[in-house]
Amino acid sequence: LVISVKYRIKPRLLLKKLYPAFYIALCTSSPAAALSSMMETCTKELGISPNVTRFAVPMGQVLFMPTAQLLFLIMALYMAESFGMEINLSWVFITVCCSSIMAVACPPISGGSAGMYTMLFMQLGIPPAALALALTVDAILDPLVTSVNMFCLQGEIILSADMVGELNREQLKAEPDSEDI
Fold it and tell me: For residue 111, what are the CA distances in angstroms to 79, 127, 144?
């Protein structure tokens, strides 16, 4: 919505342009699988210069995982509560810090978060029995988390490209060819 309002682009048109990479990430749970689609969408549909696209998309797929960080945080809090652990302010602070680091360190492949949950739960003292439940829930939510990360990444790249003067606003507002999408 922020991009739609700021650049006066219809939300439906923006969603239509962002959809291909979102769909690939949703079907595969892999940012790497959506790489070529995102590169093409950013340059041809969103009006982002190729220089920015070549740098921002691969870097963002590895480092930009806000929904993964949120899932790590929620999962740790839920498992700690479910297994009767004492949760105090310092534990929450450590959980937020560790979740943030784990989201950046998480490999951009399907199932890449399994190792992250193991390290996170060991660091926080969450019992190993919680890991099986967390991995089951993660297997169900991973496609959605990955696709939302990729969706948000494209939006972030639009904003960043505009800040450095590398966004073609007219191309962003233009209707895509029906055969392109």
Answer: 19, 21, 13
- Structural contact between residues 31 and 58, judged by C-beta atoms closer than 8 angstroms: no
Q: Closest by alpha carbon to 41, among 25, 59, 19? A: 19
pLDDT in tens, 82-91: 999 999 999 9
Q: What is the pLDDT of residues 121-134, one digit of tens each?
A: 999 999 999 999 99
CB atoms within 10 A of CB 59: 12
Say if residue 93 is exposed, middle or buried (CB neighbours under 10 Å; 0-12, 13-18, 19+). Answer: exposed
From the CB of residue 82, how many other CB atoms can be counted at a distance below 10 Å? 13
Total count of residues recorded for the chain = 181
**Does 143 have pLDDT greater than 80?**
yes
Cβ contacts of 147 within 8 Å, gap of 6 or more: 22, 23, 25, 26
